[in-house]
Amino acid sequence: MGRSIAGELLENGHEVLLIDKAPTAISVERVPQAEWLLADACEITSLDEAALERCNVVIAATGDDKVNLVVSLLAKTEYAVPRVVSRVNNPKNEWLFNESWGVDVAVSTPRLMSALVEEAVSVGDLVRLLRFSQGDANLVELTLPPEAALAGTRVGDVTWPEDTALVTIIRGNRVLVPDRDDALEVGDELLFVAAPAREAQLEDLLSVRG
């Protein structure tokens, strides 16, 4: 998991340091552009050696929720890392991954896979893709169904619920940054950042005409 994330980030021009305490996990030849540190990320001395205070983002991506929580808490409280992303392996532990444990964004692998399946088969239903812990907001998706009340309506003419922002329209192979003059079309995949309390209101707004 860590090597895969590192590879993606390096391709996008970021500097990456990988920390692992298992010698067998250190595979410099697989991600040669990254820096590597053989150490226990749950130890303050290891994080001092990694100079974590210089990092813009820390990603806790191990297969152990306890480890991910400890790394997240240390990164935020001891080193004031601006952005902490943490992997949730067991959905039962999801409630722990919040700002109290230093987590800005919690990524639940089982929930994300479930959401992607829902997103692929659901039209007209709101699908929660990602939870932003610190901001108490979610990334949600809805595919505009046939006969939707807002089909043909300009983005700027829609009164969106409070604490809700339309961030992207996916139309066929195109990714559109919403403009107030863009008209919504049937089949558009709409991505919003919305407060959880507004999700039902948003889904109702985008529903089929009654």
Derived structural class: alpha/beta
The largest pleated sheet is described as:
8 strands, mixed
> What oligomeric state is this?
single chain
Please give the number of β-strands.
10
Estimated helix fraction: 10-25%
At CATH level 3, the topology of the largest domain is: Rossmann fold
InterPro entries: NAD(P)-bd_dom_sf, RCK_C, RCK_C_sf, RCK_N, Trk_Ktr_HKT_K-transport
Organism: Streptomyces nanshensis
Keywords: Ion transport, Transport
GO molecular function: monoatomic cation transmembrane transporter activity
Question: TL;DR?
Answer:
This protein has five helices and ten strands, in the order αββαβαββαβββββα.
Can you walk through the features of this model?
By secondary structure, the chain is an alpha/beta fold. The chain has five helices and ten strands. The chain is elongated. The N and C termini lie far apart (46 Å). It has two domains: 1-108, Rossmann fold (3-Layer(aba) Sandwich), CATH 3.40.50; 122-206, Alpha-Beta Plaits (2-Layer Sandwich). Residues 117-121 have low confidence and may be disordered. Strands 3-4-5-6-7-10-8-9 form an eight-stranded mixed sheet. Strands 1-2 form a two-stranded parallel sheet.
List keywords for this structure.
single chain; 210 residues; alpha/beta; Rossmann fold; Alpha-Beta Plaits; eight-stranded mixed sheet; two-stranded parallel ribbon; 5 helices
Indicate the topology.
Blueprint: H1 2-11, E1 17-20, E2 35-38, H2 44-49, E3 57-60, H3 65-77, E4 83-88, E5 105-108, H4 109-121, E6 127-132, E7 137-143, E8 164-171, E9 174-176, E10 189-194, H5 199-205
Parallel strand pairs: 1-2, 3-4, 4-5
Antiparallel strand pairs: 5-6, 6-7, 7-10, 8-9, 8-10
